[in-house]
Amino acid sequence: MIDNISLIAAFVGGLVSFLSPCVLPIIPGFLAYLAGTSLSESKNRREDIFINSLFFVIGFSLIFAILGVLLNTILNSVAYEVQTWLSRIGGLVIIFFGLYLVGLLKVPFLEHEYKPKISKRFSSRYLTSFLFGSAFAAGWTPCVGIILGGILGLAAVHPASAFWLLFSYSIGLGIPFLVVGLFTTPAAGIIKKYGNMVKYINIVFGIALIVLGVLAFTQNLGFVANFDFVNNLILN
Asked: Which of 30, 84, 203, 224 lies at a 20 to 30 A Cα distance from 181?
């Protein structure tokens, strides 16, 4: 059964994925480019950029939904003993990505800066945006993969809730895209001004992932989600 802590973690994970330092600075210009305009002209093309952003979000949300259904189907069909080990492995995966976000681990290939290249456009810009949203979900950049790996680890811990975890992740990742698509020029200015704060957000979320990973490994996520530890403190 799903718990609120895991859902909240997945949602926040989506937000943090958007704030990845190798992705965030290029988002406004990239969304404008998908809409067939430039960042300097974005004020006059706000509606076009927003609609293309919407199709971009639909593209990656659909892939995450399919992935959630597949994980649910596959992991729920395995024996209980296997699910127990999957929970432990999932906990270790979450801890690994948490340690990376905090800065205690260095993995060079995860720090590669991504520069999007659109080699083919279709007659419909909406279709182009949708397909690039799908490609984004398939691994647009290792930076997004860091957070997504942690969410997939949570899905291994809660296989019956895999769809809802990835759906929550999609919402957390999609909302900022839509906001930037609607307010492209102001968003670009805010990103430029406050972009250096992203590393602190990553550290906070990394610590949260480590805690969740330890709880997942010890199979105590449900214990915390039900706030049993608070009841125990009151009763004692």
From this structure: 203
